[in-house]
C-alpha cells in the first residue's frame, strides 16, 4: 500500500506535513525552523547553535530527567538536532505509541525553554569542547579553508561554531539577542513540522494540532539575503596528499535547484560503465569520490567533489573528463534521466525509515522524481558549469540491483548456510551474512585489496538503498548484504564474483588513506578486533600479493553464514548465487568466544590520531545475563549522561549502550574529553556504577516491548539473529523479552556488583597507556 500524505497550516502559522506509511514499525517527527547560524547577529557567532543546545536541558514542565532526550532513550528511540546556516532541525524516531509523548516534549521545549544564566554557563563549556574538536579535525579544517575562496562578504567564510569567548554570557546585549532570536524565529510561521508513521493521517493530524499549538502565532520572517557567493570564478586548491577538491558555486538559480542537485550528484557519483567515474577508474586514477552539497539558500548553491587520487592521476585531464561528462548530461534526454531517477527514488522510499521520510518532508524534498520546476532548475545548474565536448560517454543501462525480479537459476542452499525465521519475508527486507576464517598472516593486506575491489559495487549498492560491507574482525572476514530481498540475491552474486577475482588494477593500486577519525570513533573502529581475544597470526607486510595467493586462501578456507528475511523463491535463487564459495559442511561449530571466557581486566592502548582523551569501557556478559544486561544498560544511560556530560562536563561525546560483536554482548561506555584523562574517566564511571540503579518497571516493559518483531526495526532483527547465531544461542525474541521482564531489583543489584568487580571481565580501550595505578 503506498504512503498517504496530507499538508495543512495551523492557526499559529505552523506548516504541518503528515505521512501515513503502513509498512513502518516506527514513527518519527522532524521539526524544521527556518533560522540558522547566519541569521544571528555577527557579533555573537555560535548563538543559534548555542540556543539549540539549551533547548535540551529541560523545562519547568519537563525537567532534564523527563525531557525529550531521556524520554526517547527510555523507549529505545533516537533523537538529535542540527544547526545549519539558515535552518535548525530537531528530529526523533520512536515506537509508534511513544510519538505523542515525544512530540509533546519537543514542542514544549522549543516553545518555553529555560534560558537561565545557570543553564547557559554549563552548556557553554560543552560548546567550547565541540569547538576544540572541530578546530583539531583535519577534514573540518580542510572544508573551512575551502570556503575562504568565496566572495569576501559571504557569511560562509566566517566563524559560526561558537566557543567560550564568542558567547559572552554576562553581556546584557548578548542575553537580549538570545531571547530576541528565540522570540523572532521560534514561532509558528517559521516552522515546518513533519510526522510520519503507521498511524492514520487523522491520528497524526490530531497529535500535530494538539502539541504544535503551543507555539506563538507568527508569520514567516524574510531572512536576509546573502551577498553573491563568488566575485570571480572560483579557483580550487591544488591537490594535497592525493586529495583534490573541486568547488562549484551558483547564484540566482530558480526554485527547485536543490532537488535538481540531488539528481546531478547521483550522476557524478555513478561508477557504472560509460560514466565519468568509470573513466577515472579505468585509468587507475581515483581511489574515492565524494560529491556533496555544502550550502543551499535563496537561489545559491555551493557544492564540492572531493577526490582521492593516485600518484599517476593527471589533474587537468581529471577536470577535462568531468566537464565533458557534465556536457554530456546537459545534452542528454532529461525525461530519460528523470525516469531512471524516479525508479531509484521509488526504491529509496520503499527502504527509508520513518525518520528519513519525516526529515525529507520537513525539508520539502520527498523521495520522488523531479517536477517540471526542478527539471528547469537542472538546466540552469548545468548551464552555470564549465562544460566542454570531451571524450565519449553513454548513459548506463538500468542497474540490475534495482530489478524487482529474481534471477532464474535456482539451487539448494548449502547446509552451512543457516536460515533464520525471525523476520517474516512479508517485511520485504532480507540480510545475508557470510563469514570465513582466514588464518594467513596476509589477511589484513588481502582484505584491503578486496575492499578496494568492492568499492564500485558498494557505491552502486548504496545508490540502490542496499547495505553491503566487507569487514575484518580478528581472524575472520565477513560479508553482509541487506535490503530488498531480490536485490540482495543479485548483490551477493556480484560481490562473490569480485571477492574471488578482483579486477587486475586492484592489485597494483595503493590502498586509499582513510580520513582521520576523532579519537572516540577511532576506538570504536578498533573495538571489535580487541574483543576477539583468540590469538591471531601476526600480519605480514612483506611480499607481493597476486591472484594466485588469493586463490590459495579461498581454497583453504570454508564459509558459514545466515540468511534472514528471505522467502522460499528468494532462498532458491540465493542457493544459486552463493555457488562461488566453498562451504563448511562439517558439524555445526561455534565461531566466537562466549563472554564468560574473557579474562579479567585488560587495558589496551590504541595509538589513534587526535589530541583529546578517549576511553571505551566494555563489560561483556554471558548469554544468560544479557536480558538483565540490556535493562541495566538502559537504566544507566541517563545517570551516565547526567553525571559525565551535564554535571562534570567531561566533553560532548558521552554514550552508554548494550552492544554485541562477534557474538559477544555487554555494556559499552564511551567518553571523549579535551581535559580529563582516560583513567579519570574510568573513575567517574565507577562512581556512577557505585551509586546504583533503581528498577523502573515502565522502562522494563518498554524495553521488552522493543524486542517484539512487530516493533523492532528489520535491520535490528537481522543483526540480532546474526549475533545470536555467532554466539551459538537460539534466536528467540520471546526468550529475550521474558529475560528482561523477569529481571528484578535483586538481579540488577547483583549484576551491577559483578560489573563493578569485573566478574565477567573488563576491556578498557584508550588512547593513552595504562596508568601506574591501573584500577582506581
UniProtKB/TrEMBL annotation:
Alphabetically ordered keywords of this record: Hydrolase, Metal-binding, Metalloprotease, PQQ biosynthesis, Protease, Zinc
The Coenzyme PQQ synthesis protein F C-terminal lobe domain, residue ranges: 430-563
Domain (Coenzyme PQQ synthesis protein F-like C-terminal lobe): residue spans on this chain: 631-690
Single Gene Ontology MF annotation: hydrolase activity
Superkingdom of this protein's organism: Bacteria
Listed cofactors: Zn(2+)
Residues of the Peptidase M16 N-terminal domain: 19-138
Domain Peptidase M16 C-terminal, first and last residues per copy: 177-335
Biochemical pathway: Cofactor biosynthesis; pyrroloquinoline quinone biosynthesis
Pfam families named in the record: Peptidase_M16, Peptidase_M16_C, PqqF-like_C_4, PqqF_C_3
Family listed: Belongs to the peptidase M16 family.
Function statement: Required for coenzyme pyrroloquinoline quinone (PQQ) biosynthesis. It is thought that this protein is a protease that cleaves peptides bond in a small peptide (gene pqqA), providing the glutamate and tyrosine residues which are necessary for the synthesis of PQQ.
UniProt name for this protein: Coenzyme PQQ synthesis protein F
Organism of origin: Pseudomonas shirazensis
The gene coding this protein: pqqF
Amino acid at each position: 500500500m503506498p504512503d498517504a500524505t496530507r499538508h495543512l497550516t495551523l492557526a499559529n502559522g505552523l506548516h504541518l506535513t503528515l505521512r501515513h506509511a503502513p509498512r513502518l514499525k516506527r514513527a518519527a517527527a522532524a521539526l524544521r525552523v527556518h533560522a540558522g547560524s547566519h541569521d544571528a547577529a555577527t557579533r555573537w557567532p555560535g548563538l543559534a547553535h548555542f540556543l539549540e543546545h539549551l533547548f535540551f536541558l529541560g523545562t519547568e514542565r519537563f525537567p532534564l530527567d523527563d525531557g525529550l532526550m531521556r524520554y526517547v532513550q527510555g523507549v529505545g528511540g533516537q533523537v538529535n538536532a542540527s544547526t545549519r546556516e539558515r535552518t535548525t532541525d530537531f528530529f526523533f524516531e520512536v515506537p509508534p505509541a511513544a510519538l505523542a509523548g515525544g512530540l509533546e516534549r519537543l514542542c514544549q521545549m522549543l516553545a518555553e525553554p529555560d534560558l537561565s544564566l545557570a543553564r547557559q554557563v554549563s552548556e557553554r563549556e560543552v560548546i567550547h569542547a565541540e569547538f576544540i574538536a572541530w578546530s583539531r579535525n583535519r577534514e573540518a579544517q580542510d572544508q573551512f579553508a575551502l570556503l575562504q575562496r568565496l566572495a569576501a562578504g559571504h557569511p560562509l567564510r566566517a566563524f559560526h561554531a561558537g566557543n567560550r569567548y564568542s558567547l559572552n554570557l554576562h553581556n546584557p546585549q548578548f542575553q537580549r539577542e538570545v531571547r530576541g532570536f528565540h522570540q523572532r524565529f521560534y514561532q509558528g510561521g517559521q516552522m515546518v513540522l513533519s510526522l510520519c508513521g503507521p498511524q492514520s493521517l487523522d491520528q497524526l493530524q490530531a497529535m500535530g494540532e494538539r502539541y504544535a499549538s503551543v507555539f506563538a502565532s507568527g508569520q514567516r520572517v524574510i531572512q536576509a539575503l546573502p551577498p553573491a557567493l563568488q566575485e570571480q570564478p572560483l579557483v580550487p586548491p591544488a591537490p594535497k596528499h592525493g586529495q583534490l577538491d573541486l568547488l562549484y558555486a551558483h547564484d540566482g538559480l530558480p526554485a527547485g535547484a536543490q532537488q535538481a542537485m540531488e539528481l546531478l550528484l547521483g550522476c557524478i557519483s555513478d561508477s557504472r560503465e560509460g560514466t565519468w567515474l568509470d573513466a577515472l577508474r579505468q585509468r587507475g586514477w581515483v581511489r574515492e569520490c565524494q560529491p556533496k552539497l555544502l550550502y543551499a539558500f535563496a537561489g545559491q548553491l555551493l557544492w564540492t567533489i572531493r577526490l582521492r587520487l593516485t600518484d599517476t592521476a593527471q589533474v587537468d585531464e581529471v577536470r577535462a573528463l568531468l566537464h565533458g561528462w557534465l556536457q554530456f548530461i546537459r545534452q542528454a534526454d532529461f525525461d530519460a534521466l528523470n525516469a531512471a531517477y524516479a525508479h531509484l527514488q521509488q526504491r529509496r522510499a520503499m527502504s527509508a525509515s520513518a525518520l528519513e521520510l519525516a526529515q525529507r518532508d520537513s525539508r520539502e524534498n520527498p523521495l520522488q522524481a523531479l517536477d517540471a520546476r526542478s527539471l528547469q532548475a537542472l538546466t540552469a545548474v548545468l548551464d552555470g558549469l564549465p562544460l566542454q565536448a570531451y571524450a565519449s560517454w553513454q548513459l548506463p543501462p538500468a542497474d540490475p540491483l534495482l530489478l524487482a525480479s529474481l534471477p532464474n537459476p535456482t539451487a539448494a542452499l548449502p547446509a552451512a548456510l543457516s536460515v533464520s525465521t525471525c523476520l517474516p519475508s512479508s517485511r520485504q527486507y532480507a540480510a545475508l551474512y557470510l563469514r570465513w576464517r582466514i588464518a594467513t598472516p596476509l589477511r589484513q593486506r588481502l582484505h584491503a585489496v578486496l575492499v578496494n575491489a568492492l568499492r564500485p559495487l558498494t557505491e552502486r549498492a548504496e545508490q540502490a538503498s542496499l547495505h553491503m560491507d566487507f569487514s575484518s574482525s580478528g581472524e575472520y572476514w565477513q560479508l553482509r548484504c541487506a535490503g530488498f530481498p531480490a536485490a540482495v540475491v543479485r548483490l551477493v552474486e556480484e560481490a562473490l564474483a569480485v571477492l574471488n577475482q578482483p579486477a587486475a588494477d586492484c592489485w597494483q593500486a595503493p590502498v586509499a588513506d582513510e580520513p582521520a577519525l576523532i579519537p572516540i570513533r577511532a576506538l570504536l573502529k578498533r573495538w571489535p578486533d580487541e574483543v576477539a581475544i583468540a590469538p591471531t597470526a601476526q600480519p605480514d607486510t612483506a611480499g607481493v600479493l597476486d591472484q594466485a595467493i588469493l586463490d590459495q586462501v579461498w581454497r583453504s578456507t570454508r564459509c558459514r553464514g545466515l540468511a534472514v528475511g528471505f522467502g522460499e523463491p528468494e532462498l532458491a535463487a540465493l542457493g544459486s548465487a552463493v555457488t562461488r564459495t566453498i562451504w563448511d559442511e562439517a558439524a555445526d561449530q561455534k565461531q566466537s568466544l562466549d563472554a564468560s571466557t574473557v579474562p579479567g581486566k585488560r587495558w589496551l592502548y590504541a595509538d589513534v590520531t587526535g589530541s583529546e582523551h578517549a576511553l571505551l569501557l566494555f563489560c561483556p556478559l554471558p548469554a544468560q545475563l544479557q536480558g538483565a544486561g540490556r535493562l541495566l544498560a538502559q537504566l544507566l544511560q541517563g545517570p551516565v549522561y547526567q553525571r559525565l556530560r551535564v554535571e562534570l562536563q567531561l566533553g560532548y561525546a558521552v554514550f552508554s549502550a548494550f552492544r554485541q560483536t562477534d557474538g559477544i554482548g555487554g555494556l559499552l561506555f564511551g567518553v571523549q574529553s579535551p581535559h580529563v584523562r582516560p583513567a579519570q574517566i574510568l573513575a567517574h564511571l565507577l562512581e556512577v556504577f557505585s551509586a546504583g540503579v533503581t528498577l523502573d518497571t515502565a522502562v522494563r516493559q518498554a524495553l521488552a516491548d522493543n524486542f517484539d518483531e512487530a516493533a523492532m526495526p528489520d535491520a535490528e532483527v537481522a543483526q540480532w539473529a546474526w549475533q545470536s547465531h555467532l554466539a551459538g544461542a537460539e534466536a528467540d525474541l520471546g526468550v529475550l523479552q521474558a529475560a528482561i521482564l523477569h529481571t528484578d531489583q535483586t538481579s540488577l543489584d547483583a549484576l551491577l556488583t559483578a560489573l563493578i568487580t569485573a566478574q565477567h571481565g573488563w576491556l578498557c580501550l584508550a588512547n593513552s597507556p595504562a596508568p601506574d595505578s591501573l584500577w582506581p
